[in-house]
Amino acid sequence: MLSVKKITKIFNRGTINEKVALHDVSLKLDEGDFVTLIGSNGSGKSTLLNCIAGVYRVDRGSIIIEGSNVTKLSEHKRAAFLGRVFQDPMMGTASDMEIEENLALALRRGKRRGLRWGIRKEERENYRELLKKLGLGLENRLNIKVGLLSGGQRQALTLIMATLKEPKLLLLDEHAAALDPRTAKKVLGITDRIVNKSNLTTLMVTHNMRDAINHGNRLMMMYEGKIILDIKEKEKKKLTVEDLLERFEVASGKEFADDRALLS
Amino acid sequence: MLQILTAAISLGLLWAIVTIGVYITYRILTIADLTVEGSIVMGAAIASISITRGVNPYVAIVLAFFGGLGAGLITGLLHTKLKIPSLLSGILTMIALYSINLRIMGRANISLLQVNTAYTVFEEMGLRSIVSVIVLGIIIVGAIIGILYWFFGTEIGCAIRATGSNPQMVRAQGINTNTTIILGLMLSNGLVATAGALIAQSQRFADIQMGIGSIVIGLASVIIGEVLFGRRGFASRLVSLALGAIVYRVIIAMVLKLGMPANDLKLFTAITVAIALSLPVFRSYLKPLKKSVKWGK
Q1: How far apart are CA B138 and CA B123, in angstroms?
Q2: Sorting pLDDT into bands at 50, 70 and 90, what band is B288?
Q3: CB < 8 Å & 24+ apart, contacts of A180-188
């Protein structure tokens, strides 16, 4: 499904601030894999996601999504394969536009846009149903501006938008990190439901060890621009936070130092 | 007095088209596009030279529209492909257009006194020339509002609107934001050039200087329209922009009537716009004041 081959990303190359954000990173996701990707600040997990999404061009290596080499494709062209939810709830939706207008934009991801009317009547029923399942009361507020919604509502809406047209790969970049614990739990619950329903191949970046353990069927850990752990299926099911910390220390030769990940 | 008012309304109707053009860039794309200052003259220049060479006045307006599209395209390419900041891209095109417009006209001004204009048809029907301008102005502004209402409801139109609101999200939805920005700039300047063509024909001359301050007048009209007539649905917003442009002209006519020297007009407009644009800052100063008052009781 997704195959990342030895990609390297260097920021500020040739300057005093040069930073190797990704160092020969390779990974392979099979169809239906739900991978949680964890790591401390600056470990390169968001950079990896942004390289896959095409926000950054890689310096070396290649990225292949379902047989198509997308390494040189621009961000908007790659979007045909990808559903994305961002850390910042403001980033996934257009706040000046209505809920249904946002959904209609997302429904047409990867299609040529022309002079047909932006929203067709029959779409609305579908939107209403999908929103109803969220249980946030959005189904009767299709014409409200998205800017009036709370962060949690916006993230839930962005999740719907990212999967409205089924993506080959769903990229979640710490999408619950900016929410309060209760809302975060709810958004993660919605995530699980949506991913499981269509068996979506998913890569979810998170800061939270417990979330990384509780969700998905595979867990990867990054450290200094490399993937140092890849724990699969059965092994992952038995995993505890203590195990994870211990395995991190063995793999990196250092103590795990990130208060946010430990405390949460 | 009535005469001043009708003159203001007729001029305001033509400037309504400029206002709608400015609205597309300033509010929808959230770009302050100075190309306007050049494209309005470009429209006037293309229309005037075509008409004096015997081209049908309506065809001349269409030619002006296409000229404006071209001007917007240049600014768009400078901004998106060459990554020049939008403000600077607009300034570069505006300066370049000064020379280009002189080339088009061949001299600094062209008189249209001896030729038929787009308004001649109505004048021949017995209407006074100023009434003819109002009639054609209403027809064209009405048509433009109708077409834009449709266009910004289409898939492409929605993509352009979303680009101004959140370009990152738009790219994530598979839309090339470079294309939507360029389209918006083209449409805006196409409209402004159309207005230039109509204004030149109504005043019966085109002048290389006629664009100075047009962006500020456009902004002033946008703000007046929004403040006075609200910002509800998209259609009513377009109508309120047109009304804003008319009110602006009426205000100017009044101020001149009250004895303000015409030379101070641009200063007056600039100060008005500066105050209107800085209103949010003043409001945020007032907010904590209000809060402390509430807590005090």
Answers
A1: 15
A2: low
A3: A180/A152, A183/A150, A183/A151, A183/A152, A184/A152, A186/A152, A186/A156, A187/A152, A187/A155, A187/A156, A187/A159, A188/A215
State whether residue B232 sits within 8 Å of chain A by CB.
Answer: no
Of B157, B173, B174, the CB nearest to A118: B157
Contact B169 A94 (CB under 8 A): yes
Q: What is the mean pLDDT of residues B200-224?
A: 95
Contact B165 A77 (CB under 8 A): no
By CB atoms closer than 10 A (0-12, 13-18, 19+), residue A255 is exposed
The answer to whether B230 faces chain A, any CB pair under 8 Å, is no
Which of A122, A121, A204 minimizes the C-alpha distance to A162?
Answer: A204
Cα dihedral sign, B19-B25-B27-B32: negative
Q: What is the pLDDT of residues B136-147, one digit of tens each?
A: 999 999 999 999
What's the pLDDT tens digit per position in B85-135? 999 999 999 999 999 999 999 999 999 999 999 999 999 999 999 999 999
Distance CA A201, CA A198 (A): 9
Q: Which residue has the tokens 């795990």?
A: A256
Helix (H, G, I), strand (E, B) or coil at B181: helix
Tell me which residue of A205, A174, A226 sits closest to A43, measured CA to CA.
Answer: A226
Which ipTM value was assigned to this complex? Answer: 0.90
Q: Which residue, among A219, A259, A216, has the nearest Cα to A243 in the 3D structure?
A: A219
B176 in contact with A, Cβ within 8 Å: yes
Angle subtended at Cα B207 by Cα B205 and Cα B210, rounded to the nearest 5 degrees: 110
Among residues B167, B38, B106, B285, the alpha carbon closest in space to that of A94 is found at B167
Match 């609205």 to its residue by tokens: B23
Digit-coded pLDDT (tens) for A182-231: 999 999 999 999 999 999 999 999 988 999 999 999 999 999 999 999 99
